[in-house]
Design goal:
The complex is a heterodimer of chains A (112) and B (111). With 112 residues, chain A is an all-beta fold. Helix content of chain A is 0%, strand content 51%. In chain A, strands 2, 4, 5, 6, 9, 10 and 11 form a seven-stranded mixed sheet that branches. A four-stranded antiparallel sheet of chain A has the order 1-3-8-7, with no helix packed on it. In chain A, a hairpin with a 3-residue loop joins strand 4 and strand 5. Chain A starts with a strand and ends with a strand. The model of chain A has no long low-confidence stretch (mean pLDDT 93). Chain B is an all-beta fold and 111 residues long. In chain B, 0% of the residues lie in helices and 59% in strands. Chain B contains no helices and eleven strands. In chain B, strands 2, 4, 5, 9, 10 and 11 form a six-stranded mixed sheet that branches. A five-stranded antiparallel sheet of chain B has the order 1-3-8-7-6, with no helix packed on it. In chain B, a hairpin with a 2-residue loop joins strand 6 and strand 7. The N and C termini of chain B lie far apart (41 Å). Classes of the chains: A mainly beta (112), B mainly beta (111). Chains A and B meet through strand 4 and strand 5 of A and strand 5, strand 9 and strand 10 of B.
Chain lengths: 112, 111
């Protein structure tokens, strides 16, 4: 089954404790992306990747890092999380930008 | 910078048509998208339109694009209770792989 998986689905952590949210797709997609969703703000793109070892900043990259060492995985790293990073995070992938984007189920992160 | 705006809420009666509107500011937009998000779920791409098109129809969905006014609309014919969700408009430019989303329109379909 074609899918995008994210782990964990829910995470409560404390300020400053490094964390990683994993994202994996099994569709051999080149394009992958991370978004955060906040009430009243819709989705905002954090980072995207057009292919292995090619990443670029979206609208709100501050406080986040990503890597794309393999085509299927695109982890989101918060080196020193802060409460303003409490949000719902979505990973997505597509064959290319104009193609259907498949979204993961979301990761709800709370930073205390 | 680029901006995409939508009204926050729309309520319609089952069987009526729904029209969700969106305006954007980036004149270099190449692709314009409509996504649907049901409660507790991720986003699902409904349809998209290239900027050189005026209209696209896909079953009950009709997308209209007025490039001069930078206005995009999504019409859902014969709206059903299962269409109740949040609908997001998004745009991207050919020169960039960024996707810019609106804040979403919550559609409520009343029986």
């Amino acid at each position: 089954e074609a899918q995008v998986t994210q782990n964990p689905r829910y995470l409560i952590t404390v300020t400053g404790k490094k964390l990683t949210v994993t994202c994996s797709q099994n569709m051999n997609h080149e394009y992958m992306s991370w978004y955060r969703q906040d009430p009243g703000l819709g989705l905002r793109q954090i980072y995207y990747s057009m292919n292995v070892e090619v990443t670029d900043k979206g609208d709100v990259p501050e406080g986040y890092k990503v890597s794309r060492k393999e085509k299927r995985n695109f982890p989101l790293i918060l080196e020193s999380p802060s409460p303003n990073q409490t949000s719902l995070y979505f990973c997505a992938s597509s064959l290319s930008l104009g193609d259907t984007q498949y979204f993961g189920p979301g990761t709800r992160l709370t930073v205390l | 910078g680029e901006d995409v705006e939508q009204s926050l809420f729309l309520s319609v009666r089952e069987g009526d048509s729904s029209v969700i509107n969106c305006t954007y500011t980036d004149s270099s937009s190449t692709y314009l998208y409509w996504y649907k998000q049901e409660p507790g779920a991720g986003l699902q791409l409904l349809t998209y339109i290239f900027s050189n098109m005026d209209m696209k129809q896909d079953q009950r969905l009709t997308v209209l694009l007025n490039k001069k006014d930078k206005h995009l609309s999504l019409r859902i014919a014969d709206t059903q209770t299962g269409d109740s969700a949040i609908y997001f408009c998004a745009e991207s430019a050919d020169s960039s792989y960024k996707l810019i989303f609106g804040s979403g329109t919550r559609l409520l379909v009343r029986p």
